[in-house]
Amino acid sequence: MLYKIVGIGEVLWDVFPHSRKLGGAPANFVYFVKKLGQNGLVTSKVGDDFLGKEIMDSLFKLGLAGDFIQIDSEHPTGTVDVKIDDNGQPDYIINKNVAWDFLEFSDRWKKLAKEADVICFGTLAQRSLKSRRTIIDFLKMARSSTIKVFDINLRQNFYSLKTISQSLELTTILKLNTEELVILKNLMGYSSEKNDINFCRRLMNEYGIKLVCLTMGEDGSLLIDESDYYNHPGYKISVADTVGAGDAFTAAMVIQYLEGRTLEEMSNSANRLGSWVSSQIGPTPVLDEEIKELFYK
Fold it and tell me: 8, 133, 221, 240: least surrounded by Cβ within 10 Å?
């Protein structure tokens, strides 16, 4: 079955020391959704400038439609300065007051919200009041059956407890990493809770969340639903850089969830794709045949 899967939020250029790569979690997520055979759509905004035109060209070359990319004549296209440390871990400097800080809830977006089977969103694009209202309205206009994936994606200081709580109230699947888990515990006053499963179940009970995914880098992942959990040890690979790996993980996990797979099956697929992306350069590598076979078998 072909699902309409939307990534809403930031689309931008990740500017590395010697190159520039198309980035932003929603765009990366949708790229992998498309590569795994589903109908992925990016909803974002770029400036009416050279970098914005290059983003539109790059999306087209990646096989992604730009139909729901808005054009901003007043604000520049988003850019992020990325530095990779010796362990392949990225450090981001995210520039402010760019096009995706001014998302508009247009009539076309309202129609898309009603049609979406899955909506993936995070906190970064909610750093401005304008875009936060648009994203929340988009989620609220979706059908009750729509799966809302909150990939929390905490960056710099572009988040607050209010924004996180408002997002959790609309969440079906929550995804976060170990660093974000610590931050969330502290923000919510549960820093003394040492059992991650207990804390995640507390969130599930309080907000009506169906699935929580905790990614743990080279140590794999922990998936928790209402009755069970599965701890995957991860796959050992040689890390090139981890940019985009989490978005690939989310895409694989969501598609497996839609297909009614078990926690173990979701974990196997998501960790396999996420680890493979970590072994490649850039957030949107071309999938090799071995990886494709795992998902198209």
Answer: 133
